[in-house]
Design a protein that fits this description.
By secondary structure, the protein is an alpha/beta fold. It folds into two domains: about 40 residues; about 240 residues, Aminopeptidase, CATH 3.40.630.40. It contains seven helices and eight strands; from the N terminus they run H-E-E-E-H-E-H-E-E-H-H-E-E-H-H. The protein has a six-stranded mixed sheet with strand order 4-1-5-8-6-7, sandwiched between helices. Strands 2-3 form a two-stranded antiparallel ribbon.
């Protein structure tokens, strides 16, 4: 009898071990039971890295939209001259331009940031693209060695190669990330898609250059320019295929004369009036209703 019980125990032992393994697997190995080993995370779309800012101005969506981008912000102060930081200076300039455009009427305006927040570089043109902006302007203040005596503003458009060594150096400094925004062309062949991208980029580039030259022309009597011709460089913030874009280096923050001008109410007003005038002329040339009644 004892021998029969021993044989039954030896036979049942592996079955018991197997049953224990199955129970343990169901309790701890399967997702949703015990310790789940599978974690699913919903990743945001590449274009949703920042909340869209408010659009101010006329409710009429047919009015052209300008997106103003104050450079830097948050943990990125930009250039510094004592207590004066580029991120604060350019934000005040951007707000002055926004207020001037709203005062004149006929144009809708959005800022990529209206406070001291940090934005990744690709998020800035992405905001303009998601809002379907008609124009994008990124505002900065340059810096250089004090001994160079550099002063005055410079307007840039996108180019893979800088118009000169200084332009390439400035673009390298401003580019916190060199990410080109993706272009989605659905249901087209590679050949047709490449042709459409090239055609769009050529048109946008020509519009950017037109706007950049208008800024220089309209600002000649109000603002000092270091370069009186349009410059170009590979600024990452300008790498949007959809929106005419310029980067405006408004002056040198470590030049006391420039810094004093840009920080003063009079300097901000001169900047705002010059750029606002260029914007309205640009839209008139593009036959967009910026000059219509408010």
């Amino acid at each position: 009898m004892r021998r029969a019980i021993t044989l039954i125990a030896l036979f049942m032992a592996p079955i018991g071990v197997f049953a224990a393994m199955v129970a343990a697997d169901r309790a701890f190995g399967a997702p949703g039971r015990g310790y789940g080993y599978v974690v699913r995370v919903d990743l945001p779309d590449s274009d949703t890295g920042a909340d869209l800012p408010p659009v101010r101005g006329p409710i009429d969506a047919s009015r052209p939209l300008v997106v103003i981008d104050p450079g830097h912000g948050g943990k990125d102060p930009g250039a510094i001259n004592g207590p004066l930081q580029e991120k604060d200076l350019v934000l005040r300039l951007a707000l002055a331009l926004r207020d001037e455009l709203l005062r004149q009427g006929g144009v809708r305006v959005a800022l990529t940031r209206e406070d001291d927040r940090y934005l990744l570089l690709p998020q800035r043109p992405a905001i303009a693209r998601r809002l379907k902006a008609d124009l994008f302007i990124s505002i900065h203040a340059d810096s250089t060695e004090i001994s160079s005596g550099a002063s005055g503003a410079t307007v840039y458009v996108l180019s893979e190669k800088g118009s000169n060594e200084a332009a390439e150096r400035i673009a390298a400094r401003e580019n916190a990330a060199d990410e080109v925004n993706g272009i989605r062309i659905a249901e087209t062949s590679d050949t047709v898609g490449s042709w459409l991208v090239d055609l769009t980029q050529r048109k946008v580039q020509a519009q950017s250059e037109d706007f950049g030259r208008l800024i220089i022309r309209e600002g000649q009597e109000r603002l000092p320019f270091r370069e009186t011709t349009l410059q170009s460089a590979a600024f990452a913030v300008l790498k949007s295929p959809d929106n005419p874009s310029v980067l405006f280096e408004t002056g040198y923050i470590n030049n006391d004369t420039d810094a004093g001008r840009l920080a003063s109410p009079e300097g901000r007003q001169a900047f705002a009036q010059s750029v606002a005038s260029a914007i309205r002329i640009y839209f008139a040339r593009q036959q967009l209703p910026a000059t219509a009644a408010r």
